[in-house]
Design goal:
3-stranded antiparallel beta sheet, 161 residues, 2 domains, mainly alpha
Amino acid sequence: MKYITLFIIIFVLWLLITFNLETPNLIVGALVALLTSLVFGKSFLKDSKKFFQLQRYFWIIIYLVIFIWECIKANLDVAYRVLSPSMPIKPGIVKVKTALKTDIGKTFLANSITMTPGTITVDIIDDEFYIHWIFVSSKEPEQYTNKILGRFEKYIKRIFE
């Protein structure tokens, strides 16, 4: 099942990259996907059944909408801080704890935080994230954890766990 899942993913990516549905391109794409699946299939997904659960795709779409909205808000916030004459920043590194268990979920969360302007994931140790934040608005761990992780974590959990 892992090999079939990997073949489908690679073949779809091939079609998206080449954007060509002519027969020679389909044959080459299928051969590349087959060869790659045979070589890397053993080390691919541990549980490829998750790939075929349709509700995960629904949560991906919801997550993308929320992520885009959070990025827009963060861009406006950073632009305000840069353009303001007083430059209201209070940078710092905060430690937040995540409930995510899978490595891919933690990686996705760390990248989502980093791609949101004003925050950068500095390090991940077990289930704790160290995040540089442009404006540390609170010294209470519950409050800043909710501000940083609360927007993304519950959706990532539904997608990857």
